[in-house]
Amino acid sequence: MARPHDKVPFQQEICVNGSDLLLAIDVGTQSARAIAFDRDGRQRARAQKIFEPTYQSPQPGWAEQDPDLYWRAVVECCQQLWAEG
Q1: Which residues make Cβ contacts (< 8 Å) with residue 81, sequence separation at least 6?
Q2: Which of 5, 44, 48, 77 is disulfide-compatible with 34, CB 3.0–4.6 A?
């Protein structure tokens, strides 16, 4: 029987502690999340980092955000998942 992930092209499989998992990362305007799912689509672990939406407006109509804020949040979420095993 074909599993849903068998039909996804270019899927890279990872193995952590002997279990195959899929890592999903979601970055929004107020938080970043990392969620690990098993092969059957069940959520196995979840981490979230909430941050204040910050932007700078160097001129009218512009909104600039610091990409490092988002990157650090994703890294912290992934590190938390890894630490929880």
Answers
A1: 23, 34, 36, 45, 46, 47
A2: 77
Cα maximum dimension of the chain: 57
Note down the domain range covering 76: 4-84
As a whole number, mean pLDDT of residues 21-36 equals: 92
Count of structural domains within the chain: 1
Let me know the angle formed at the C-alpha of 81 by 77 and 85, rounded to the nearest 5 degrees. 165
CA-CA distances (angstroms) from residue 4 to 8, 9, 24, 77?
Answer: 7, 11, 16, 26
pLDDT tens string 16-27: 555 688 899 999
DSSP 14-68: EEETTEEEEEEEEE-SSEEEEEEE-TTS-EEEEEEEE-----B-SSTT--B--HH
